Amino acid sequence: MSINAPAKALTLKDYKSDLHNDWCPGCLAPDTRIMTRAGSKPVEQIEVGDRVLAHDGRYHRVTELMSHQHDAPMHRLRVHGLGTIVLTPDHPVYAVRRQRHRKTNTDFTAEWLPAESVSRGDYVGFPVPTEASDQPSVSLWYARKFKDTRSKPLPDSVALDDRFLRLAGYYISEGHAHHREIGFTFSNLEKDLVQDTVRLVGDLFELTATIRDRTEHNNTIEVMVSSSYLTEIFERMFGSGAVNKRVPEPLMQLDPHRQQSLLRGLWAGDGSWGRKKATYRTISPVLANQVTVLLLRQGVLPNVHQQEANGIHKKSYAISVSNGAGYNKLAGGDSCPLTRRRRHSRSRTTRAISTMTGVQAAAILASSPAFKWHCNSYRSSPTNSPCTAGSAAAGRRRTTSTGTGSTRCTAECSPSRRAVAS
To answer: In terms of residue numbers, what domain contains 115?
Structure first.
């Protein structure tokens, strides 16, 4: 090679080899979930081409994945209302220094700080999607069966209006699919929801719903809709089984104002209104993250609590709103006003700022594979907890281009069995 030839830009991948494969700057725990355009998923499942959420509120494409081993101490950061994240001491965290102990900051200028320098009481950012779609309708594609004479053909599309969004919320929370029909299960005290569901199914799909009163059996009322085509569509859009329920991507991309009907439909199903807080419960980790994002886009700061599996009960998630302004905005006049205020957090256009409530070192018991991603054109922060530069979850390591030819390393690693992140 000529001495005058331009030098090749080296990446972190060029410094690694089979013999030296244990370097892991900026790592996260393997089970950390990543915020992608299609919903959250463990970093181990992230693929090239996925779009992950950055601290600028936009989704950026992953262009490269790499792997290596890591065995070193980790830090566990606990953030008020937004869970826990496990990461290496040098991992960048988008944070705001606390100005005075027990006093709310007057300035919230954030900066990227190493995890080891973040202290209890500091504020950390959580990315809030800012991209909004004005999509007017969604396609109702399904496989037409020529010999199926029982199922009535459906419209080619349905408008993404308040009616469909409310029905989608009902189904995600209370719906199920069984062979050729879908069903909604309500309490026998929710007859208004029963009648609304019957009316929406008729208006949107020109289908007749059947009401099955099971009050004597288990105090419930079922609304059943017999249509193999609608069953196929709803299973594909919203997932099958409670643990796999999700909000489809087109609905997550809508303008926040349009999403209010979706939130009210969700809350009418699996939500509750208490004297001190409003709470939504689910066993779907993807849905729990999506409900959190939907609330943040409304300027409502939730508190996410994870309940571990116990006996016959699966791991569950409770997303609650206790801030007075957030509670009342979510209720939309449908519940008694709440005047109580909380000062742990504040909301910005592209991110929510929440308080650090705990910092703890987490020991590594065994080394395991770690991976790296390269995120196209921007520093990303797609974890379900604090904003972390170019990472998303443990088990994967990533570098993100700054747009000027240089790169910023943010590696995730797979630490020990004790390094558990939410």
So the answer is: 20-124
